[in-house]
Amino acid sequence: MVKAALDPLVNKTLNIRLFHSVENVSDLRKKIMSGQLECCLVNPKLIVDPFQLVVAANKALTAKNRTTKTIFTEILFNLSVSKHITKSLQQFGITDDCRDLLVVTVGDDDSRVLSEIKGTEVELGALEEIRDLGAVKKAYKIGPEEGATSTIVDSVVSRIATKDFISH
Amino acid sequence: MEGFELFRQGAEGRIFKGVYLGKPAIAKERFVKKYRHPDLDSHLTKERIKSESRSIIRCKSAGIRTPALYLVDFNRRTIFMEYFENSIVVKDFIAQASNEVISKLALKIGAVLGKMHANSIIHGDLTTSNMLLVNKNGQKSYSNLQDLELIFIDFGLSHVESSAEDKGVDLYVLERALISTHSTASEIFDQVLEGYKLENKSGFKEVLAKFKEVQARGRKRTMVG
Ligand SMILES: Nc1ncnc2c1ncn2[C@@H]1O[C@H](COP(=O)(O)OP(=O)(O)OP(=O)(O)O)[C@@H](O)[C@H]1O
Ligand SMILES: [Mg+2]
């Protein structure tokens, strides 16, 4: 797992965990939607590096006004360059047939969420095998010119940081 | 600001250096201008921050490396961005480099600028303090130009514009800045134009003509003034 410090104003930590072979995805999604479970489930295919989640979550937690209902939907929304809420949530969220997933929580202790997940936790380094760089470039509209100079993580986080006022 | 220390204090704002979200970062904060109405001031600041960020992103899309953006915070009037640790400002590099190396660097500066202009990005504040040379191997060594990547920073006065006029003004600002800081300014500037021509072939003639116009106007002004 990764524990990341956020903006000093936020004074909270972000927990990121990666799971394989999760069996109760549909159950987890229901619990999140009914508010019983406070976390965000992210599709790992579009995540290049945990830092991408840190930037999106930090933006959500420092914002004066949110665009979506919860901090967790806001993180998903921020991950996408689309200004369309449903589209963003579908793009970065998961579906019932997903087996690999990233679990993002806010706070010191994520044991409550952790206990609900029926799957195998793996190191975040395993993202390298799951992520789909082609799909990432497409999702963030990163062309060949750009790929040659900036690292893909830099390109991705810079777009997340500016999604509310730049059309990508 | 927690985790940051004051790094530079300019006319428009302050720059803090520190660690943000676990990365070396700078926080560029703009001052409140007390003589303005508060609403107007926050509106104008917001627009400046937006155009600075927009140009940084536009450069990236064009294949020109710029600092990565970590958070744009309008309330705090601050942009949090990547800090290039192993870097030297071009101004300091030129002060200690040989003419031969400077000439090669100038060609690079011109090429990157040509590319920026070809993508309609007007920098607005082209000085050798707003360009960095970053060591590509993560070392604090600046002796070999080949190991250094040229990066433009400080897009605080930039805008997006395709007209040759604004590009000519941009070049003029650079020429004036070179003259005021470097003794071999005219040799440097000639090489900048050579590099520029390589990357903005189709626009070069028109931009050069505009630059000469602006230059002539500038001369007249200094003669009268
Ligand atoms: N991303 C960065 N990485 C490393 N150093 C930087 C970075 N950004 C700025 N600096 C350093 O800070 C100085 C000032 O930054 P910048 O030009 O962005 O701000 P400014 O408000 O225009 O300041 P000034 O009025 O001094 O030009 C630069 O000349 C450079 O030395
Ligand atoms: Mg500057």
UniProtKB/TrEMBL annotation, chain A:
The keyword tRNA processing applies. One of its GO terms (cellular component) is EKC/KEOPS complex. The gene is AUGUSTUS-3.0.2_06547. This is EKC/KEOPS complex subunit Tprkb-like Protein. The lineage of its organism: Eukaryota, Metazoa, Ecdysozoa, Arthropoda, Hexapoda. Keywords: Nucleus, tRNA processing. InterPro entries: CGI121/TPRKB, CGI121/TPRKB_sf. Belongs to the CGI121/TPRKB family. One of its GO terms (biological process) is tRNA threonylcarbamoyladenosine modification. It comes from Tribolium castaneum (Red flour beetle). It is found in: Nucleus.
TrEMBL record, chain B:
Signal peptide: none annotated. Coiled coil: none annotated. Gene3D superfamilies: Phosphorylase Kinase, domain 1 (3.30.200.20), Transferase(Phosphotransferase) domain 1 (1.10.510.10). One of its GO terms (cellular component) is chromosome. GO terms for biological process: tRNA processing; tRNA threonylcarbamoyladenosine metabolic process. Its EC number is 2.7.11.1. It catalyses: L-seryl-[protein] + ATP = O-phospho-L-seryl-[protein] + ADP + H(+); L-threonyl-[protein] + ATP = O-phospho-L-threonyl-[protein] + ADP + H(+). It is an enzyme of class 2 (transferase). Belongs to the protein kinase superfamily. BUD32 family. NCBIfam families: arch_bud32 (TIGR03724). This is non-specific serine/threonine protein kinase.
